[in-house]
Amino acid sequence: MRIIIFGATGMVGQGVLEACLREDAVTGVLVIGRSPTGRTHRKLREISHTDFTDFGPVQAQLTGYDACFFCLGTSALGMTEAAYRTITYDFTLAAARALLAAEPELTFCYVSGAGTDSSGTTRMMWARVKGETENVLLALTPRAYMFRPAFILPLPGTEAKTRSYVLLYRIVTPLAPLLRRLAPRHVTSSLRLGRAMIEVARAATPRRVLATADINEVTTSRP
Question: Which residues does the UniProt record annotate as the domain NAD-dependent epimerase/dehydratase (predicted)?
Answer without folding.
Answer: 3-102
